[in-house]
Description:
Blueprint: H1 5-25, H2 32-49, H3 58-65, H4 78-81, E1 84-91, E2 94-101, H5 111-114, E3 146-148, E4 168-170, E5 189-190, E6 198-200, E7 207-213, E8 219-222, E9 234-235, E10 244-246, E11 253-256, E12 261-268, E13 274-275, E14 284-285, H6 291-302, E15 319-321, H7 323-330, E16 337-339, E17 346-348, E18 351-352, E19 386-395, E20 398-407, E21 410-415, E22 437-440, E23 445-447, E24 450-456, H8 461-468, E25 471-477, H9 483-487, H10 494-504, E26 510-516, H11 525-531, E27 535-537, H12 546-552
Parallel strand pairs: 4-5, 18-20, 19-22, 19-23, 24-25, 25-26, 26-27
Antiparallel strand pairs: 1-2, 3-4, 5-16, 6-15, 7-9, 7-12, 8-11, 10-12, 13-14, 16-17, 19-20, 20-21
Amino acid sequence: MRLSPREIDKLALHAAGSLAQKRLARGLRLNHPEACALVASVLLELIRDGRDGENLGVAALMDAGRRMLGKRHVLPGVADVLHEVQVEGTFVDGTKLVTVHDPIATDDGDLSLALYGSFLPTPKKDAFPPPPGEGESPAGKKGGKKRKAGGADEGDAPDEPVRLLGDIVREEWNDVATGPDCVGPPGDVVVNDDFGDVTLNKGRPGILLKVTNTGDRPIQVGSHFHFIETNALLSFDRAASLGRRLNVPAGTAVRFEPGESKEVPLVPIAGHRVVRGGNNIVDGPADAPDALEKAMAAVASGGFLHVAGGPEYPPAPPLTIPRAKYAAMYGPTIGDQVRLGDTNLWLTVEKDMTAYGDECKFGGGKTLREGMGQQCGVGASAVLDTVITNALIVDYTGIYKADVGIKDGMIVGIGKAGNPDVMDGVTPGMVVGVNTEAIAGEGSILTAGGLDTHIHFICPQIATEAIAAGLTTLLGGGTGPASGTCATTCTPSPNHVKMMLQTSDTLPLNFAFTGKGNTAKPEGLQDIVDAGAVGMKLHEDWGTTPAAIDNCL
């Protein structure tokens, strides 16, 4: 029997799904891994059946995936955190991907479908009584209006669903429950409306500029795109737009339909006010004495539409955004609270090191693009290797939101990342350039990895288990599956240390090895230290006598 790695993975998935079916059949409510495994394994069985007569195509399977389990069949909070199940299966006409969004979509589900292929008896419906009060506001608390992460009232269809830590932002600050009666999804986010709406691009005087799309296709302009550089078929006063961009939330855009005319708010770019990229109309400081003259010459020669206007334009009103909407887009900010998993512990954000209106966002039409949030004209040595954007950081200094910069495998900055040519307050050393990778940290908590100080280095599988447990540093000793290593944490000889350092180089963890300190004389101890041991281990199995202790110390 020859199995591919994917087929071996599916065998493990089947085992987990079958176990989940057995637990469900005897009336147990499923946890997150069990629910996910059950839905995925049943989908694969339906795919394997290949019954075209029942129209079991991708669309039908997506629907079936949402009908298997109801909220009464899973533990509290599971429906809130199980957002998606994806399986790849071989249909009669080829391999296809089936994606089920929000698989726990009903209260009662369909147990016969959930137990498909198991030959297990279907329990009665009342074997899973709905938990009392699940999903309701805490007793005795103010009944605040709940909002989805996109900021829409429950029942409304938000324009674009946005996943947050718990996918729900409760608007009423007084609706927080931190005792045993705490309800709400794991990772719930509660915004602090005492701080009011969030003002974006504060202090930048905006103008309203009329823009017309003369083309036959829609044109979309992102928040940080230099407006003078926009599509040639947009007709407006390009001279007035020099050194300005749209005054909209970072990472959003304005769409101009064919033939449409409308006023849009523009604000000055910040930072060094250097315009680069786009259509190369401007390539340098926007405030240079000859910048406007050169720009308008490039507009004329390039055939960009221009309508002279001004000299003054009406001021644009300040841009504000509801805190719930802000938290959904960029993560919680100052004063907001975040529930830690499904516990009764809550975090309160103490400070926000990002800039309202100049947040770093990666993706199509977002902020981290050339000439916008990504600086032009800088080499690899001057920019970050990787940036983690808008992460909620929990460390010994506090609870705060920030961008995190990584260079040469080390964290080199925590603060505001981006392009100092167009953004204020970019932390020194945290420039984003063409050589920078991005990791979206919105909706995630970033904290230090764990340290395990008692490791028997017996086998490489230790590393996999450590990573899965949130550990990033392993301190201990050993040489592999030797008798001494199984009993003690000592790496005795310089050759052993060399071997262990070499073998651990391929594993994504920090390693520290201890030598054996059990000797009454100094000979041998310096050798192991010079080889790279970080310390000495005294273990009674090797004879921890008073003389050995004194000598080792």
